[in-house]
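task queued by scheduler; priority normal; single chain, no ligands, no partner chains; default sampling; output format set to structure tokens
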Amino acid sequence: MSQPRPQGELGRQLVERMAQMTADRVEGMALANAERNGPLVAGGQSIAALRDMAIGASGRAIIIAAGPSIKRRDPIKVIKETGFEGAIIATESGMPYCLRNGVIPDLVVTADPHPARIVRWFGDPNLEKNGLEDDYFRRQDMDEALAREHEVNRQMLSLMDRHGKEIRLALATTSSNDVVDRAHGIGMQIFWWNPMLDDPNGEGSVTRKLYASNRMPCVNAGGNVGTAAWMFADVVLGKTHIALTGMDFSYYGDTPYRKTQYYHEAVALVGEDGLDSVYMHVHNPFTKSDFFTDPAYMWYREAFLELAKDADGAIYNCTEGGILFGDNITFIPLREFIEKAGV
């Protein structure tokens, strides 16, 4: 009988392979989406146009992603109480939280090419007809409202139909047909960009091929939409002080494995009894508590820390939890950022 693997051992091995695994999973889908979106991209405007716009009343920005700290810390409550006047940049997954709380983001960013899931954040007009694809939304430890899937979808359809025209959307050329159709259908202000799918200087680069096909700017999104949103604040909008919320890249210690994003994939790989070998535990010295993470989120964390080395703007993690800490990142509460940082 084989001995169980040590805690997190397999997870750490998978982190080393995550770049290739991700490429194998999304490259074909992304390129097919980009080809289909080609005519719309050709007639649209690029994210470069955002540089000429006054987005936010200062050099400060707050990123709102959809990590589990959002429901525990409620950053919009602090934003409203303090009267923050800088830019609010939301991931597409953070957009429902913003709109339900009466905040219209200055910019929304979407990156994932998944054919069915991402449109849900915009309100899926076909959900009633097509039914629920899987338990991805109702299972996870994110926004508890998502468990009421049809109700929340109807709410998002209404909110987006009401406010969509007011929202600037940084739309990846590799986005799914459903997302692109929905964004155009509700009249969102669209700015196209190419996600870097690999090293553009490498031989046979997919990113270089993508750029050659549409000439839209390429952005290193670090593999996830939260990092992409930060990159837009830093590189495109030139914000000098950027706060991160909802960018946990991990789960709170009391979260059951079944409520994690890649639970089904982990079970398929090692079975229920082997899950401890996949999930890695990290001590946060600022909160003096432990969090756990999976290989994908750990890879996102490492990518962000590498990108942070070359950041122009100061980075403040105001998530008040999670595992994103390291060089060039100041770990403070959101209220402190708003009242003191860059003022």
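post-processing summary
- The CA atoms of residues 318 and 334 lie 5 Å apart.
- The chain has 13 helices and 13 strands.
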